[in-house]
Write a structure and sequence with these properties.
The chain has eight helices and seven strands, in the order ααβαβαβαββαααββ. By secondary structure, it is an alpha+beta fold. Strand 4 and strand 5 form a beta hairpin. Helix 2 packs across helix 8 and helix 3 packs parallel to helix 5. The longest helix has 33 residues. The radius of gyration is 19 Å and the shape is globular. The protein starts with a helix and ends in a 5-residue tail after the last strand.
């Protein structure tokens, strides 16, 4: 279903545009924007499925490089801001000076995929219909680990769903009932990628507002 829906939309709209059935310029632009959005959604879904498949087969190969947390945030920000804007949301970034100087030795592509998945989930499930639509990305040195938090101000995670959050292909009853996009693979992939990097992804159960997911990565020890 998740593959068929964007493909069906793309096929239908492209046929209508190619056959000259859409004469109104404003409507044509709307169709093109929908096609671009569906193509992005499909690409993200395929990236997750392929990455998960590589991990399952044991063929995933990490390519580590050393980078400061400040440099990591600079690399991540443009794509994350763009993702938030697509849902009329604002991404707020918090990074202190000490954290910015901290070094991690990690696979940047894997980290980018993890953090993007967390922000993507926050956009899909953690934005209010009314009021301020904000997602917060906080990056800090937690001592032995770098801590990257992605928090929203939505309805949070139902207690009955907490234990199942990181199971592959799991979606909560609420998400399924409201036809939220996705196949329930993002968080399972995030956790497996993080553990392959010597880190962890978890839900911060202490937060009382919204949902807050935490990526922890080993910090390079100072000599």
């Amino acid at each position: 279903h998740e593959l068929r829906t964007p493909l069906t939309t793309f096929h239908l709209y492209s046929d209508m545009l190619a056959e000259g059935m859409v004469q109104d310029g404003e409507k044509r632009q709307s169709y093109l924007e929908t096609m671009r959005r569906e193509a992005t959604r499909l690409n993200h879904l395929i990236e997750n499925v392929l990455a998960y498949s590589r991990i399952e087969r044991g063929s995933a190969r990490a390519q580590h490089e050393q980078i400061s947390l400040g440099g990591l945030v600079e690399r991540l920000e443009p794509r994350l801001h763009e993702r938030a804007r697509k849902d009329r949301a604002e991404l707020k970034v918090a990074l202190d000076e000490e954290g910015a100087r901290s070094l991690v030795d990690t696979d940047l592509t894997a980290v980018e995929q993890i953090v993007f998945n967390l922000v993507d989930n926050a956009c899909k499930y953690g934005l209010k219909d009314e009021g301020e639509r904000v997602i917060t990305l906080s990056v800090m040195n937690g001592g032995r680990t770098a801590r990257i938090e992605v928090c929203d101000r939505g309805g949070g995670i139902a207690r009955r769903d907490v234990k199942k959050l990181f199971r592959p292909f799991h979606k909560s009853a609420c998400d399924a009932a409201h036809s939220k996009p996705g196949v329930g693979l993002g968080l399972a992939l995030c956790r497996r990628l993080a553990r392959a990097l010597g880190g962890e992804v978890k839900l911060d159960a202490q937060r009382t507002e919204g949902a807050c997911f935490v990526l922890e990565l080993p910090v390079v020890k100072e000599r």
